[in-house]
Design brief:
This protein has 89 residues and is an alpha+beta fold. The chain is built from 2 helices and 4 strands. It has a single domain, classed as Head-to-tail joining protein W, gpW (2-Layer Sandwich), CATH 3.30.1580. Strands 2-1-3-4 form a 4-stranded antiparallel β-sheet, with helices on one face.
Length: 89
């Protein structure tokens, strides 16, 4: 099992859903005005700043996709639905 330190949390890298949740917390802290967040993985360190928020969002999307793939697509709640209209003549 390989682990990664994201902010103040230690997360199992083999669990894409846990990774996505931890990275979302980092994004929230950055959006709320914190100047930077540090992610440590296998001896490497990446510092996300507000300027790198788009990179963080794409990383979250990547882990969300992997989470859906692992769990059969049932983990992410849909927020938009198509509207249906039926005309009876």
């Amino acid at each position: 099992m390989s682990v990664m330190k994201i902010g103040t949390e230690t997360v199992n890298m083999d669990d894409p859903c846990a990774m996505a949740v931890a990275l979302r917390k980092v994004r929230i802290r950055l959006s709320a005005g914190q100047l930077r967040e540090t992610v440590r993985m296998d001896g490497e360190e990446v510092v996300f700043q507000r300027a790198k928020l788009d990179d963080l969002k794409s990383l979250i999307a990547e882990y969300d996709g992997e989470c859906r793939r692992v769990n059969g697509g049932a983990t992410v709640k849909r927020t938009r639905y198509a509207k249906r209209i039926r005309f009876d003549c």
